[in-house]
Amino acid sequence: MNEEHLRAYRKKRDFGKTPEPAGGGPPDSPSHNRFVVQHHKARRRHYDLRLEMEGVLRSWAVPKGPSLDPGEKRLAVHVEDHPLDYIDFEGVIPEGEYGAGQVIVWDQGTYDCPGKERDPVEAFQKGALHLRLQGQKLRGTWLLVRIEKEENNWLFFKKEDEFADPSRDILQEKPESVLSGLKVEEVTEQTSGTWHSRVHRMLGEMHLPQAEVNERVRPMLATLVSQVPTGPRWVYQLKYDGIRVLAEKKTANSASIPVISSR
């Protein structure tokens, strides 16, 4: 990471007061061209599009947010680069600090550049990024193009493909965080933007009756290894990221049946 890229970001923030990450540590994983869209309820509500590039998150503020309608070209203002660990940031920036307000991770995923300019850094320098997003909410091809003779003003809009849909308002349809399940108005200083808070919220909304824990059966956990076992006596299953569930079903005329599933 080029420390020079984060100079403007750090100059605007007091990290003794704001919970935002200062950055500067080693990268948490190899670059996979990740992207994030954060909903930011600041003095002026907006969405922030951030693309992993050159060891930082290159960032644009999109006042009206993304639209699935190819006819809607949304203004995207190029702002200072953010550190990579901002990609999971959710919380409250305190009053009096730069960008004070609530933040959620509205969407997250990976991107690539399928056009002639396959290198995103070169495409950025030329002012025209042809993006293919693979997020939880935003998918397909998008364009991010600098307005001629404007240094920081770009346009962000959807290209015609199977994911375009002028009839859908994706911002109203899916306002919640992809990490915590919270809407931006629900974020507090105690909010932890992690997957388990989203699961707890979903379970709470189901109003399930309290049940005793069955200690006889435990879910099988995955084991991290550098290579898969070989030989006729070995059987293995690849485990992907997800939630391992242990459930028990009871019926009126039968004993309880332990059920193990995962996704």
What does this structure look like?
It contains four helices and eleven strands. The chain is mainly β and 263 residues long. The strands form two sheets. An eight-stranded antiparallel beta barrel has the order 1-2-3-4-9-8-7-6. A hairpin with a 7-residue loop joins strand 5 and strand 6. The chain is globular, with a radius of gyration of 22 Å. The relative contact order is 0.13. The C terminus is likely disordered.
Mean pLDDT: 84
Report helical residue fraction: 10-25%
Question: From the helix content, strand content and strand pairing, which structural class follows?
Answer: mainly beta
Strand order of the largest sheet: 1-2-3-4-9-8-7-6
- Low-pLDDT windows of residues: 257-263
Topology:
Layout: H1 7-11, E1 34-41, E2 46-53, E3 56-62, E4 74-82, E5 91-93, E6 101-112, H2 120-126, E7 128-135, E8 139-146, E9 153-158, H3 170-173, H4 195-206, E10 244-251, E11 254-262
Antiparallel strand pairs: 1-2, 1-6, 2-3, 3-4, 4-9, 5-6, 6-7, 7-8, 8-9, 10-11
